[in-house]
Amino acid sequence: MSRTRPSEYKATAEGILRDHPEMRTAVTAATRTFNSHRVHGFGEVDAERWRDWMHQVKNHLLTHLDTYLEQAESNLVTHGARVHWAESAEDARTILADITKSHEVRRIVKGKSMLSEELELNTFLGEHGVQVRETDLGEYIIQLLDEPPSHIVGPAIHRSLEDCRELFGRELGTPPDASPEELAAAARRALREDFLKADLGISGGNFLAADTGTLALIENEGNIRLSTSVPRIHVAFVGIEKLLPRLEDLSAFLQLTTRAATGAPIGNYVSLLQGPRRNDEPHGPDELHVVLVDNGRTRLLADERAWEALRCVRCGACLNICPVYRQTGGHAYGWAYSGPIGAILAPAYLGLEEAMPLPFASSLCGACADVCPVRIPIPDLLVYWRERAVEAGLTGRTEAAGMRAYAAAAERPALFGAAKHLLRHLPWEMGGRALPVLGHWTDERTAPPPSRRSFSSLWKEGID
Amino acid sequence: MGDARERILGRVRQALEHRDSVEHPGDFGAWRPDGALPADPVEAFTKLFTAAGGEVRHFDSEVAARTWLDGFASAFETVSLGVTVEGALRPERPEASPVSASLGISMARCAVAETGSLVLDARDGRRTQLLPPTHLVWVRAADVHATLTGALSAMKEDLPSGLGLHSGPSKSADIGQITVKGVHGPGRVIAAILS
Description:
heterodimer, A: 464 residues, Rossmann fold, 2 domains, six-stranded parallel β-sheet, four-stranded mixed β-sheet, 51% helix, B: 195 residues, alpha/beta, 5 helices
């Protein structure tokens, strides 16, 4: 499946719903399960207090980001790691290419990393004759299918057991009725060879504690621990927003990120890495490279409203609860990060025009804000990017005019009251369609005619 | 690339120029409803580690542990032993490299009750912790911390190149959302607690 762009959202979404209704079934089932586990996981702790605390830690980190970046770099270097700085995806790819060339790297194993998707590392390495093997089982499945991930946490949630049976039968010779255990065992055997032969392991980074230079990675399978322990070189790509001030701060973040993602108390495996193998250690990589990546993050940090999106811990909880995401899965969004969080990151990372129409791919129901472990005001930021898009003339003319008229009326109570009265009494087809909030909603539906009396007048009279 | 560093830090500073600075909220309290976890850390660890699919054994003495170990290890052809596993806790079985051994035995640096995690230190040997299909991990009851914050704080002044928190057997639900064990790491993990 070819990678699409955000601008193709509507067509891709329609294509998925029309040609692959089974994807909607699979994605809806998987996200409902994830979400019910999150509800349970949040309920076991005082999640509201944890969320407040994490919100503040991350805002502290982001408002002192320069200091903490320098501190993290200094501690990593002290432990023998090499630190690289990448302004763009191209920079990051060049840094990786330099490492693979100077070390004559032929084979790479990779742990799941959304940043590596954002940087499009696999395509780049393939073009340079380096074999890259995704080792997370979900990532392995979609690599064999040549598909992008459809979810931040579960990249293959859009694929069923039947799909996997067919795929593994073709690629690994498993029988057509193989059980999930047999399929996993076949993948384990194939990938074990890859781990042992690889020259280099790539990972992302969930967090980087500045005061010790500790890189933290969360997973369930053990493939990240293997990718970062077995090959002689480990390269970690870390977004600059992933820092945390202190080692102890990891405690809440490791726990609530996992509770938000899968409901478990903590990821089955957590790696806390401080550098390459030392003399008193029998195994581990001889080199650790940490690539600190900007690629749009400083642009987002500079935005007076949207910078708070940088708190994101990539748990996927907002995808799991989103009624829009659930219909299609992540492919429709045409970018590494899908769902509500993808829709508010894309305008900063890709540019507003390139990100269109993702901020509109939401019903603004607000469920995402209720589940976010770091309290990102996602619906507010969706509205913010919509306003910016309207200002920039990136939306349809009717909708833009409607928004402007609404804004003008809302600022003047007398005019607002008059407009309300007019809409209530005009024939619906003439007035109602001009309401900006209805937009495409009324393309395939008939909006109910408005009540002759307004809510505010009923309220004044007293509602029984 | 030195320039990239300066440019990124420069842009960060510029972005923060007019931003109100936010204070760190202080220590994390790991707040939970009353009674959500047993008060005894060993009991809480046992509960969570078992719930995650791991096995837990308790031993009152090294003699009792040794007796159990001889029987347990006899079912495995070869073992890979962590560097810091003490003599009495090393079974008399043929040793093999972690790549081919059927059982890995490690000594935990410590454990965490609130997450049900064994904390493994790179100085003990990372491959032994990951490659054999069954993993036996010794941990002393006194080293079971109530909270992850407590464990991190205690280890902070003596960090190896890598720590691994293992909170149960390797698992995945990536194939049709059905959970399977032992995908890459060990499919069977036994935490053996020594009092």
